[in-house]
Amino acid sequence: MSTVAAREASPAPPGGGRRRWTRFILPTYVGIFIFYLMSPILLMILYGFNKAPNARVTFKWQGFTTEWYRKLFDITDLTAALKNSLEIAAISALIATILGTLIALALVRYRYRGHGTTDMVLFMNIAAPEIVIGASLLSLFVTLKVTRGFGTLIAAHVMFNIAYVAITVRARLTGFDRSLEEAAQDLGANPWVTFYRVTLPIIFPGVLAGGLLAFALSIDDFIISSFVNGKTLTFPLWVFGAVKVGTPPQVFVMGTLIFMGGVILAITNLVLQRRKV
């Protein structure tokens, strides 16, 4: 009885009536914002199942079909462009991940002449407009008389991906306990074994995140690629050219599959991280 009486006697919090509905403001805003961001992707997924006359995308609903999934690779040029994008993204992401990780280790652990300049260059690379980077690379390749194509695309993608990988891994290295490495070396491990057995497993989530980010940025890039591609077409460049005559529905299907692949990787990473915890 005393507890009930105390609850009844305690004054109600000021503005209690307003709190009952104001607490929905933030969740509603977040929901609307997420829907706004996801709406183009949802439309892409939806219209990948739409019947399209003349095999060209139309935003008038013609009926449900899975025809475009069955005819996914019927357009030879589109398939080749997607293959180029995947190969360039995989190779450039791998190279950028290795180099970016080494740069992050150097920035965090060592003080050398030019340390501040290296740090500034990384952030300038991210802050610089892509059209400036693309034009600069084009001028460089033309000056050096380098034939533009698959190789120049990889070089360009590695160049702008390194900064993102380095900054991502650097964040993971901040606060790293060096005593773990010292303990491994006290037990007889050489520097390479220490890095492979101790350092890399600890920073691997950051390395993986940087690699996946580099892959996503590479497969998505259009502006820089348009300057240095030569005769090699990537998926974004092919789609841009196809818009002038009509986009085939296979583009939406490929975009859906790429998006779902990213979602699966993200979910797998979360599951693995929770199991480790």
Task: Explain how this protein is built.
It is a single chain. This protein starts with a helix and ends with a helix. With 277 residues, the protein is mostly helical. The protein has helices at 2-9, 16-22, 25-47, 67-70, 76-109, 115-127, 130-143, 150-173, 179-186, 191-220, 223-228, 235-242, 250-276. Helix content is 74%, strand content 0%. The mean pLDDT is 86. It has 2 domains: 13-67, no CATH class; 76-247, MetI-like fold, CATH 1.10.3720.10. α5 (76-109) packs parallel to α8 and α5 (76-109) crosses α12 (235-242).
CATH homologous superfamily title of the largest domain: MetI-like
Taking Cα atoms only, what radius of gyration do you get, to the nearest Å? 26 Å
Number of spatially distinct domains: 2
Structural class: mainly alpha
Please tell me the CATH architecture of the largest domain by its name. Answer: Orthogonal Bundle
Secondary structure: helix percent: over 70%
Task: Identify the quaternary structure here.
Answer: single chain
Q: Largest sheet at a glance?
A: none
Tally of DSSP helical segments: 13
**What is the CATH topology assignment of the largest domain?**
MetI-like fold
Strand content: under 5%
Q: Span from first to last CA?
A: 45 Å
Beta strand count: 0
| Average pLDDT | 86
Order of secondary-structure elements: HHHHHHHHHHHHH
Low-confidence runs: none
Specify the CATH class of the largest domain: Mainly Alpha
